[in-house]
Design goal:
Oligomer: single chain
Number of domains: 3
Helix content: 25-40%
Shape: globular
Number of strands: 16
Radius of gyration: 20 Å
Number of helices: 11
CATH topology of the largest domain: D-amino Acid Aminotransferase, Chain A, domain 1
Structural class: alpha+beta
Length: 353
């Protein structure tokens, strides 16, 4: 069987660059060498595209850039990029791309649009779903339109912060109470998120989010269990078993997600009655379909400890793929090992194309 040329596209210009490096190294190590010829394609923080042909540990550590070769991006529809190898005059044409870039300028439809224009099959959601899910506010509005439950929220824009007390009054007029979670609308990995306990902390939280994004999501802070479901498929998607996050921190922040201790804070399957679990899994698929997701996504829920009501939190179209990450672990427990999961994602990408 002829091997497919698989470009694993990683890095990117967002604040989640380092997360992408960890994901890329994991995918490259796990992909079946009997099925794929692997071509790591990195994007630097300044936006340079480079081909790296070295030790995957150097990707994980961030040393790859100094050892990589610049990559020419072709302007024509055919052959978006060709990777020159010894003895090859015209370079290697890629058969499929696996973008593992997290955050803006990668997970938000930009890379997906480039790949669409090139005609190159790629793993994951398309342009619209990627863009819609990246914007937490827009995603919530689409959930509400489809009658899917969300935690009460309001929206503040960076320029409103100049109003000082007026901005504080606007937030408090939404009657969300305290505590509040304040989030940049277009970032993942819990970057820029703060938990605000009272008015004295509110402006700090808003300013912290505004450092990362013009649009700021302010959510009612509920005492909730954090439940996650991995969804896989194109037009007939399947949900995994559910997982629960047991954060050692006050909430599941960046440090909790990507530390060595993170794995011990994940409970799979989540301890829920079967009927409740099935209801949440169905809601995950409904949300996935409502936003037009394909390939893969992780659908996150908040389960109110007081009322028992489940709320959709967000959809992550390029969930982490590190060995500590929830998405592959959920499928592992469902019966689909990591390497087979990568194969299935490639199949879905080709099917979609």
């Amino acid at each position: 069987m002829k091997k497919m040329n698989l470009a694993v596209v990683f890095g990117g210009m967002s604040e989640e660059h380092e997360v992408s490096l960890m994901t890329a190294a994991s995918v490259l190590r796990a992909a079946d060498p009997d099925k794929y010829r692997l071509f790591p394609v990195g994007i630097t923080k300044s936006g340079r595209w480079m081909h790296f042909d070295g030790d995957y540990a150097d990707i994980e550590s961030g040393k790859w850039e100094a050892k990589a070769a610049s990559l020419q991006i072709n302007k024509g529809r055919e052959n978006l990029f060709s990777i020159k190898m010894p003895g090859k005059i015209n370079g290697e044409k890629m058969d499929i791309a696996f973008p593992v870039i997290h955050g803006p300028m990668g997970e938000d439809g930009t890379i997906q649009g480039l790949l669409e224009l090139s005609g190159l099959p790629y793993v994951g959601c398309g342009v619209f779903a990627s863009a819609a899910c990246m914007d937490k506010v827009f995603a919530k509005q689409l959930f509400e339109f489809n009658k899917l439950p969300v935690v009460p929220y309001t929206v503040i824009y960076r320029e409103e912060l100049d109003g000082g007390d007026d901005c504080v009054k606007k937030v408090e007029s939404a009657s969300l109470g305290y505590p509040l979670f304040i989030k940049p609308a277009n970032l993942g990995s819990s970057v820029g998120i703060t938990k605000v306990h009272d008015r004295s902390e509110l402006m700090y939280g808003l300013l912290e989010a505004a450092r990362h994004d013009r649009k700021i999501l302010v959510e009612k802070g509920i005492d909730a269990r954090e439940i996650e479901c991995a969804v896989l498929g194109n037009y007939d998607p399947e949900p995994s078993v559910l997982g629960e996050i047991m954060p050692s921190h006050e909430f599941y922040d960046y440090a909790a997600k990507y530390s060595e201790e993170a794995k011990s804070g994940l409970v799979i399957p989540a301890d829920l009655p079967e009927e409740e679990s099935n209801s949440i899994r169905k809601m995950a698929v409904d949300a996935y379909k409502a936003l037009g997701c394909t390939g893969l996504s992780r659908v996150d829920f908040l389960l109110d400890k007081t009322t028992g009501e489940a709320y959709l939190n967000e959809i992550n179209t390029m969930p982490g793929f590190t060995k500590y990450s929830m998405y592959p672990m959920l499928w592992q427990k469902t019966g689909l090992p990591y390497r087979d999961l990568i194969d299935r994602l490639v199949e879905l990408a080709l099917e979609k194309q």
